[in-house]
Design goal:
Number of helices: 15
Shape: globular
GO molecular function: O-acyltransferase activity
GO biological process, one term: GPI anchor biosynthetic process
Radius of gyration: 23 Å
Largest sheet: none
Structural class: mainly alpha
Main location: membrane
Keywords: Membrane, Transmembrane, Transmembrane helix
Helix content: over 70%
Number of strands: 0
Mean pLDDT: 81
Low-confidence stretches: 1-9, 125-133
Protein name: Transferase transferring acyl groups
Distance between the termini: 42 Å
Number of domains: 2
Length: about 375
């Protein structure tokens, strides 16, 4: 009783904050698709406009070979300010005050991209050829930056009322935009991993060394949240588990079980299928239940069992990264063909997500099933 009184006096709003992010049901897959369209659309428009400006600047620089350092710094900060105004700020606005118009924003940005493609891109193709187009690896970098940006925004905004509750993490079944966080990081890491690049696998000792920063961050998060008495929703990963431990576990599993990138996709699908069968056989009821025993696995059942889902997703990401970006067996890959493949795969994955959500089992970040 004394511990409860002490806990309440230390942070009287802790329970209210936990309730604020608990028992949520998420949003619709269609709205998540719209929000997932807004972010890359803004990035694409910004990149295209910056390339147009860079070509104009390069033409002007031919007349002046001296570039003062102060001018470079000014250009850097001005570029940073434009990036914020054209990418970061619109994302903040769409995810908060314009959340009810997410579909309209996504459609408007798609129309802008279509107009740009129709009137600007043909000139680039004819004038400079395909060599001037950005590489697919640059697009991966943009994707990874976008994932970090949206993750930071949502983590900071979720504690405020201006951030719609349906965008926060769902309690059991359902999905909000925040439920895409860990999965997006796993896929982003997989696309550029050593396995996707078909680089010789590290030894077990080297693999442990490589994940040490993640393990350190995982324990640092436990200590820091405990130290400041910050609210922790145990239904998310468990009592002690967190996001960093999941990434570390996936990394070490991939290092221990060495699979050629050509076979990673099939193995990943088999892992996901087997995990789903296990869930449908009764594991899902155990994971959703609030009952926990004293052992470490039961205390962190959501985080530990979801590793299988994230690992399968990682292996599929490795396969995609290898075939789309790093496979050197076909040197003359056409960028347009690669882009078309990505569009087809994106549409296919969305269709499969809708089918599985409707007829097999609802989407659940808590067990990592789709």
């Amino acid at each position: 009783m004394e511990d409860r009184l002490f806990d309440k006096s230390l942070n009287p709003n802790k329970l209210l904050k936990e309730q604020f992010v608990s028992n949520l049901t998420g949003s619709s897959l269609l709205e998540i698709a719209a929000l997932s369209t807004v972010v890359p659309a803004l990035v694409v428009l910004r990149k295209w406009s910056s390339r147009d400006n860079s070509r104009k600047d390069s033409a002007k620089k031919n007349d002046d070979q001296v570039h003062p350092v102060g001018k470079d710094w000014m250009q850097y900060f001005s570029t940073l300010a434009v990036d914020y105004l054209t990418v970061v700020l619109p994302i903040i606005v769409v995810f908060t005050v314009l959340s009810e118009w997410a579909f309209g924003c996504a459609i408007s940005l798609a129309i802008l991209i279509y107009i740009y493609v129709m009137f600007k891109r043909p000139q680039l193709y004819l004038k400079d050829g395909f060599s001037q187009l950005p590489s697919m690896r640059a697009d991966i970098s943009s994707y990874r930056v976008s994932v970090v940006l949206v993750t930071c925004l949502c983590i900071l905004a979720v504690d405020f009322k201006i951030f719609p509750r349906r965008y926060a993490k769902a309690e059991t079944y359902g999905s909000g935009i925040m439920d895409l966080g860990v999965g997006s990081f796993v896929v982003a890491n997989a696309l550029v991993s050593r396995q996707a690049r078909n680089i010789a696998s590290m030894s077990f000792k080297a693999a442990l060394s490589s994940i040490s920063p993640l393990v350190f961050l995982g324990f640092a998060r436990i200590i820091s949240t405990w130290g400041v008495d910050y609210q922790v929703h145990v239904g998310e990963y468990g009592v002690h588990w967190n996001f960093f431990f999941t990434l570390a576990a996936v990394s070490i599993l991939t290092s221990i079980v060495r699979i050629h990138p050509k076979h990673c996709g099939l193995v990943g699908l088999l892992i996901l299928a087997g995990y789903q069968i296990w869930l449908s056989s009764g594991l899902n009821e155990y994971l959703i239940s609030d009952k926990r025993s004293a052992d470490i696995i039961s205390q962190n059942k959501e985080g530990i069992y979801s590793i299988l889902g994230y690992w399968g997703m990682f292996l599929i990401g490795v396969s995609l990264g290898f075939y789309l970006f790093f496979d050197t067996s076909s040197k003359g890959k056409n960028r347009n063909t690669q882009v078309m493949k990505i569009w087809v795969l994106a549409a296919l994955f969305w269709i499969l997500a809708i089918i599985f959500d409707s007829y097999i089992e609802r989407v659940s970040r808590r067990m990592e099933v789709t």
